[in-house]
Design goal:
Elements lengths: L13 H20 L4 H8 L3 H22 L3 E9 L2 E2 L1 E7 L13 H14 L5 E7 L3 E8 L2 H9 L13 H11 L8 E7 L8 H10 L3 E6 L6 E2 L1 E3 L5 E3 L9 E2 L3 H11 L3 E3 L8 H9 L3 E2 L3 E8 L1 H17 L10
Parallel strand pairs: 3-4, 3-6, 6-7, 7-12
Antiparallel strand pairs: 1-14, 2-13, 4-5, 8-11, 9-10
Length: 333
């Protein structure tokens, strides 16, 4: 197998180069024949046409082996023990129906996913986990070093993920805190993304738990403090708005006080995403400042690179091509 397979595409241009070199040779030969018989000129000049052709072939072969070397061929495998260090960041994301409010275009949920997707890409080298919540909470993406997989899980998040309505921030934070309880202080952080509306009175208990676990919670508020309606589409595609049990249209507002309280009490920071989407990259700076906790050693299979052999062959062929004499030895009679 090859580590850089894309370089193998260069092999398609090798025949073009070979044809060009032989074309130049025969073009020069044709021009010479205009002035004298080629065989006679060959004898007089002692030019070895066969060797000249061989030089072209050696140069082409050398180019082929260089391209193969660039592709880094790998053979065999060896198992090594690898100990990695990484910080752990858990994103706790609100997927309640209030996240469908369109005070941000297209809605709160989609804007959150777009911004967090860019943020996760910058977390490379750290562990990422994603918890989603509404009336209940669960791990959408278990804690992993695979940033690409975490991003795919993020993009698939939907309000349809949750079987229960409501907003239980405390349940989601409890899940995240339990999942990071064994990680040392300073090597972990929780990022809470929500409009802040909460119908659970147990939030203060979870804040005390975060303090006990020495886990900072960074809160990202999304939405308009003035409030917005929650659009609901029926089966025919007609849009209505979510109503309460009395038939009144529900207005969802960004609760900045709650989010500021959570951040202040746990030593984190509150960011209003609605005011400035770029401000979320403060979190990226915070993530890079986290300590790296050492994991238990894990076994990794590594393939051995063998490009040196192909590079050596290419060098030998090129040397032959350069130093191979094209003129016959001896003097004319």
């Amino acid at each position: 197998m090859f580590e850089n397979k894309e370089f193998l595409n260069l092999l398609f241009i090798v025949p073009v180069i070979a044809v060009f070199l032989f074309y130049c040779f025969y073009r020069k030969k044709k021009n010479i024949v205009k002035f004298a018989d080629f065989e006679m000129l060959n004898q007089i000049s002692k030019l070895n046409i066969g060797v000249y052709k061989l030089k072209i072939i050696l140069i082409v072969l050398s180019l082929i082996f260089i391209i193969i070397a660039l592709a880094k061929p790998q053979y065999g495998a060896k198992t090594t023990l690898v100990s990695k260090k990484a910080a752990t960041i858990v994103i706790v994301m609100d997927v309640s129906k209030s996240m469908l409010a369109e005070d941000l275009n297209p809605n709160r949920l989609e804007v959150s996913k777009q911004v967090l997707s860019n943020l996760i890409a910058g977390f490379n080298g750290n562990k990422i986990g994603i918890v989603v919540f509404a009336g209940t909470a669960f791990w959408k993406c278990p804690i992993t070093l695979d940033v690409f997989s975490a991003n795919n899980f993020l993009k698939s998040i939907s309000v349809d993920d949750m079987p229960l309505g409501g907003t239980k921030i405390a349940k989601a934070l409890d899940l995240a805190l339990n999942g990071t309880s064994d990680i040392p202080e300073g090597a972990k952080a929780i990022i809470l993304v929500t409009d802040g509306e909460d119908d659970d009175s147990g939030l203060h208990v979870l804040i005390e738990k975060a303090k006990k676990h020495k886990t900072k919670i960074y809160t990202i508020g999304i939405g308009d403090p003035e409030g917005a309606r929650i659009p609901i589409k029926d089966q025919q595609g007609y849009t209505d708005f979510l109503k309460d049990e009395n038939g009144n249209i529900v207005i969802t507002k960004l609760d900045e006080n709650t989010l500021q309280y959570i951040a202040d009490e746990t030593g984190g920071e509150y960011i209003n995403l609605s005011e400035n989407k770029d401000s979320i990259f403060k979190i990226l700076q915070i993530a890079h400042s986290l300590d790296k906790a050492k994991d238990e050693a894990s076994r990794e299979v590594q393939r051995e690179e063998k490009y040196q052999i192909f590079l050596f062959i290419a060098f030998i062929l090129f040397c032959f091509a350069v130093y191979l004499p094209v003129f016959k030895e001896g003097k004319n009679d």
